[in-house]
Amino acid sequence: MSRTAEITRQTRETHVTVALDLDGGDVHAATDVPFFDHMLEQLGRHGRLGLSVRADGDTEIDAHHTVEDTGIALGQALGQALGDKAGIERFGDATVPIDEALARVAVDCSGRPYLVCDAHWPVPMIGHGYESHLTPHFLEALVANARLTLHVTLERAANGHHAHEAVFKALAVALRRAVAVTGAGVPSTKGVL
Predict the structure, then answer these.
(1) Strand duo 114-118 + 125-126: pairing
(2) Pairwise CA distance, residues 145 & 68, whole Å
(3) Selection from 134, 135, 137, 141 nearest residue 154 by Cα
(4) Inter-axis angle of helices 34-46 and 160-179, nearest 10
(5) How many helices, marked H, and strands, marked E, lie in the chain?
(6) Residue 108, φ and ψ in degrees, nearest 5
(7) pLDDT per residue over 146-178, tens digit each?
(8) Burial environment of residue 158 by CB neighbours within 10 A (0 to 12, 13 to 18, 19 or more)
(9) What is the rounded CA–CA span in Å between residue 150 and residue 117?
């Protein structure tokens, strides 16, 4: 059973290609938003995913369109790679510390998109061009297109980099657990997700 997908999204603002393998592989991100690339690489490595993201966007304006469209494409790839979701664990959660920062994430591959993001970012901007509000915006796009229920809580953080990295790593581990094949059949009393 192949659990892979490749999605290309082209708009007037961006051109994004995402290749995803739920069962592992190389990880590479090149979006012209260096901090976002770093976060996507954390998602791939700690999620034990094969993940390749290439994006060309209007980053001379800001990173918003690139981050949003990457979330859309990655969400579509995740949904496609999961297929009918037969045999997956379905639920996953993780608590991840990065020095003083602590993030908790819970995911349900439910087929029902819903995001709760309880995070107060310690700084408004990370590095060159990554505004803190882009992380929840990325999560919104991911959730809507992968049709996940996702709860994200940033318990504490004093360092902006640590805050976002804890969230992305917790998402990676929770997602890895949720998409793991641990049984047979669709994990729902309805028989479909």
Answers:
(1) unpaired
(2) 11
(3) 135
(4) 30
(5) 4, 10
(6) -130, 120
(7) 999 999 999 999 999 999 999 999 999 999 999
(8) exposed
(9) 8
Each residue's pLDDT tens digit, 80-91 = 999 999 999 999
Domains in the chain: boundaries: 4-179
Q: Options 3.30.1700.10, 2.10.109.10, 1.25.10.10, 3.30.230.40; which CATH number does 4-179 get?
A: 3.30.230.40
Q: Which amino acid is at 104?
A: R
Ranges of residues in the chain with a pLDDT under 50 are none
| Cα 149 versus chain centre, distance | 12
Residue that is written with structure tokens 């961006």 in the block: 14
The encoded tokens of residue 100 equal 């003083």
Measured between alpha carbons, how far is 78 from 4 in angstroms, rounded to an integer? Answer: 8
pLDDT of residue 1: 73
At residue 62, φ and ψ (nearest 5 deg) are -170, 180
94, 43 contact by CB (below 8 A): no
C-alpha closest to that of 146 among 189, 191, 108: 108
